[in-house]
Amino acid sequence: MFAEVSLSFYLPEHSTALSTFELPKKQLQFTALPLTALQACEEDESRHPVVIMYQGKPAGFFVLHHGPCISPFTENPNALFIRALSVHPAYQGKRVAKRAMLALPGFASVHFPFCNELVLAVNEKNFAAQQLYFKAGFQDKGQRRAGTIGIQYILQLPLASP
């Protein structure tokens, strides 16, 4: 039986669990810790923090971002950009991230009905994340951009129109 994975918008009661996130240096070079990403959300209402729940406990985190600020990654005004995905090391290897990414299209269609595409940037050296995203249905259409630590692949997941 598969363990329960669900998505929830960030609530203050998630703060304690998210504050315990520590990632290995190898992973930290590719993403932001939840509390750092939350600070950016407080300054920008087009960023929406999402908590990955595993068996009722916060196990991961990412941000959904929309609006003009995501134009370096997509020209689609109806896209949601995924930022700062992380899974607490205690929950890694349990398919939490994969199940979260598979649940994301449904979550997006409910909470962001204008959305017709999910977009993300993944570093060319982050092979584990690339595999995750491809298994979740994201597509590489050849778009690249320079990131702070190297080339980023821009991956897309078209969603069914509302």
From TrEMBL:
<dbReference type="InterPro" id="IPR016181">
    <property type="entry name" value="Acyl_CoA_acyltransferase"/>
</dbReference>
<dbReference type="Pfam" id="PF00583">
    <property type="entry name" value="Acetyltransf_1"/>
</dbReference>
<protein>
    <submittedName>
        <fullName>GNAT family N-acetyltransferase</fullName>
    </submittedName>
</protein>
<feature type="domain" description="N-acetyltransferase">
    <location>
        <begin position="7"/>
        <end position="160"/>
    </location>
</feature>
<dbReference type="InterPro" id="IPR000182">
    <property type="entry name" value="GNAT_dom"/>
</dbReference>
